[in-house]
Design brief:
Pfam families: SecD-TM1. By secondary structure, the protein is an alpha+beta fold. About 45% of the residues lie in helices and about 25% in strands.
Length: about 120
């Protein structure tokens, strides 16, 4: 037969374990990604080449996670909000007029959510 004190100790151990799990996983759940979105604001103006954008930003020491076309624009994912602001200033200086460069900070999906929501590649 367990005593009231041993039940209390088990409850305390379980509560501490749950608290430790929350502290461990919370930063990963609330992590954000900093992004820039480049869109053309003029009819007939094509998007800049992703490799060109990468070279120009990298030459200025701006760390880029990825550059991907998305919808009608380019999405540039960066390491930090400071890098995001530097990249925006740089892009405004190097790109000709007619482009919209928008800042966005979105919650980063977890690794498993990204894997599950990938669209299958068309084969053949």
């Amino acid at each position: 037969m367990t005593t009231p004190r041993s039940r209390w100790q088990y409850a305390l151990i379980v509560a501490l374990a749950l608290l430790a799990l929350c502290v461990f996983f919370l930063p990963a759940m609330v992590r954000t990604e900093t992004e820039l979105r480049i869109r053309s604001t003029q009819q007939g103006l094509s998007l800049p080449d992703g490799f060109y954008v990468y070279q120009r930003l990298d030459a200025r020491g701006i760390r880029i996670k990825s550059i991907t076309p998305e919808g009608d624009g380019l999405v540039i994912r960066l390491d930090s909000p400071q890098q995001q602001l530097l990249a925006r200033e740089t892009l405004q200086a190097i790109l000709p007029p007619g482009y919209s460069i928008a800042l966005s900070e979105l919650p980063a999906p977890s690794h498993w959510i990204r894997k599950l929501t990938r669209t299958p590649q068309d084969l053949g």
